[in-house]
Amino acid sequence: MEKTYGWWIWVIGFGVLVGLLWMRIGSCRDAEMQDRTNKAMWGYTAPIDSAAFKIEEARKRAAAIYDSTALAFRDSWTILGSPINVRVDTANRNFPAKGVEVKMLEWIAKAIKAKTGEAWFLTDRVLFNSGTAELNAISNEQLDNLALILWAHPQFLAEIASHDTSIQDPEAKRKLSQLRAEAILQALLGRGVEINRMTLANMDSGQPVMPSAGKDGPVPGQQHFVHLKWK
Question: Would you state the pLDDT for residue 35?
C-alpha cells in the first residue's frame, strides 16, 4: 500500500507540473499574439496616419505657393462662369462654362464631324511668373485639362505659341515667347501628350503668329495659344 500510495503521489505531482508548464506556454503564446496584434495594428494604422499627414502637408504647400499675383489671377476667373460637368473620354471634369476647355471641345466635336478644320485657342488660366519662362503653379489645373483633351482626341495635332505684350525689345520679346511656348509643350508632354503631335509656332520674326495676339488677354502682359489642326 505504501508503494501504491507513493506512485500516485508521483503521478499527481507530474500532472501538476505539466499543467503549470502548459499554463506558462499558453500565457507566452497569448503575450506573443497580443504583441503581434499590436504590431500589426500599428503597422496598418501608421501608413494611414502618415498618408493623411502627407496629404494635409501637400495641401498646405499648394496653398502656400500661390503668390499674390496667382491669387489675384484666380479671383479674375469669375468672368469664366460657373463650373459645368463635362465628359472627356471616360473622365468627368468640371470646366468653367466660358473657359477655353469648353470652347475647344465644342469646336472638336464639329471638326470630327467634318473631318477637317483648324483653330487657335487662347488659354485663360495659364500663368507665367513675370518676366520669366517659369510656369506658376496655378497653371496646373488648365494644363491638366488641356492634356486630357489632347490625349482623348489623337486625331488632332497641336501647335503651341506664346506672345509677351509687356516687353518692348523685339529680340527679348521673341526669346521669352519662345521659351514660354517650350515650357507649355514640355508641361503637356509630361502629362502624356505624344511629342509627335505637338510643335512650336515659329517665333523667328518676333511678331504674333496667331489671331488676337498683341492685345492683353486674361493675363496682362502675356498670351498663350494652342492651335489645333485635324491630322
Answer: 54
Strand 118-122 vs strand 222-230: parallel, antiparallel, or unpaired?
antiparallel
Q: How far is CA 47 from the centre of its chain?
A: 22
SS3 call for 127: coil
Q: Which residues contact 73 (CB under 8 A, 6 or more apart)?
A: 125, 127, 136, 138, 218, 219
Please report, for the chain, the start and end positions of each structural domain, with discontinuous segments joined by +.
1-64, 69-230
Q: Give the CA dihedral 77, 79, 83, 88, nearest 10 degrees.
A: -80
Q: How far is CA 26 from CA 20, 21, 29, 149, in A?
A: 10, 9, 5, 64
Q: Which residues contact 71 (CB under 8 A, 6 or more apart)?
A: none
DSSP assignment of 30-85: HHHHHHHHHHHHHHHHHHHHHHHHHHHHHHHHHHHT--HHHHHHHHGGGGG-SEEE
CATH for the stretch 69-230: 3.30.1330.60
Residue the block writes with cell 501637400: 58
The C-alpha cell at 169 is: 525689345
Give the amino acid at 40.
A
**Average pLDDT per block of 10 residues along the chain, 231 residues long:** 54 62 58 47 44 55 70 90 92 94 97 96 94 95 96 97 88 92 97 96 66 62 92 91
Residues 198, 159 contacting (CB under 8 angstroms): yes
Task: Identify the three-state secondary structure at position 97.
Answer: coil
